[in-house]
Amino acid sequence: MSSNDDQLNREIEILDSVADKGPLQKARAYTKLSGPGWLQSAITLGGGSLGGALFLGVIGGFAMLWVQPFAMLMGVILLAAIAYVTLSTERTPFQSLRQEINPVLAWGWLAASQLANMIWVLPQYSLSYAALTNNLFPGFFAESKGDDSTKYIVSFLILGLMIAINFLGSGKGRGYRIYENTLKVLVGIVVISFFLVVIRLAGTLDWGAIFSGIIPNPALLWKPAGAYNEIISALPTEAAKEYWNSVVLAAQRERMVASAAAAVGINMTFLMPWALKARKWGGKHRGLSRFDLVTAMMIPFILATGCVVIAAGSQFHGKPFEGLIEEQGGKVVVVQASPKYGDYSKSIGARNKTVGEETALADGEKKLAAMLIKRDTGQLAASLEKLFGNSFWSQKIFGIGVLAMGLSTISILMLISGFVACEVTGKPRDSMAFKIGTLLAATGVLWPALWKGESLAYLAVTTSTFGYVLFPIAFLAFIAMINSKKVLGDQVPTGRARLAWNIPLVISCIITGLAAGWTGWNKTLAVGENVIPLGKYFIIVFVILVVIGFFLPRRSKSHS
Length: 560
Prior knowledge:
mainly alpha, 4 strands, globular
């Protein structure tokens, strides 16, 4: 018997010993056995979450603290359903979905997961690079950080480190446990780093507003957040009010959708069953799997992202970009020496095209244009200098948290890509297919060629918005599976248990489906002077293919 089997037997003994015990005794036992939830935590606490939290704080302040926890709750519901299906069958969910439900949904889920890996890895490299050059070693990179050659060198060094770490994940037993524990350490660093920032901010914060911001407020989808709304209401013309109201709302919606997308991505749904299989968990681990998702993924995520929203909101919400404008003689004057003056000029230029240059530019409009300029992790860390007493600690603590986020997520995206390769080829996790598959997520090193924006953190928002369009695929797939007698047999939920699974799953599917559908439907591709409604075409074609998929012949379980 292998050491891995011995470990599994010990786990089952512990689970049996607390099966009829109270919540506290179960919690103590479950805490010692947790594992897959930490892998999920490592991927969700990445560039998308950081970028989403940073820009939520800038655009909405404390009023948007609820967005990411609410999205995470829906994600946990889906991942719990995935765990139930996985632990109740001998096949992976992909095989069950392909053979028993709908092959189009199955392959769509796999393809969307891998596409998300290859896209979401881009901002992880850009944020890791930003942390190294802006926060941790600014002196060393002072003269070269803007060069593409430096970006590529740093990115390939990170890739080499990630390949070495991920090959641990291809092993069985001790190697995989070391890999899991490494990610636990990185997640812990992320949470502690941002928690220290908020502790330092504690005496300056409006805690009443913070607690109010935890309560969901969907009205922010149709109404600008407080600081922006006040300025817009005071503008002298209706045309200017209408224009800036639409601009701010578009920014709020984009940040809210992107932040929700970064909470639980479709590739995380593909990771979950493989992470469970890697630990050889079975039916007796169902309760443990749900506990693991809440304590190892949901709680660290809420703490870390909440701290970033609080820090960003306290420093940036309702405030013009630093050094861009100032008041002189009762008038707002633009300081053109600011490095962000170009972004400001573009914003005002777009305003003039819509409102008309003949309409005088109000001081409030200058403030709005300066407030909407994107911040980066470097600006947030720099804004905390006075709170830490000097720039060294503000930059280093924040930079360590950002770097840990980036590295842990790169590693997990490579791990999922390896699992995708195993699923397609039918090979086990310790095969060469897995190792080669991990390299599918090496696309992140190309970020210098694919992203030229001033804010490296904003790349995470852009990619997360795209990824959210794919998320309802996973909801549809697992709603179908958890209700399928063909997939689950006698393990299919019945009675109250069936309602307990389906009600939250369907509600979450509707919410994410509407948000993703609206986002995807409005996605366009500019080709010269023509604008192609690419999102509409994708949604229509995919829906048609899914419907066709329900009528295609299935392979029987015996041939799997």
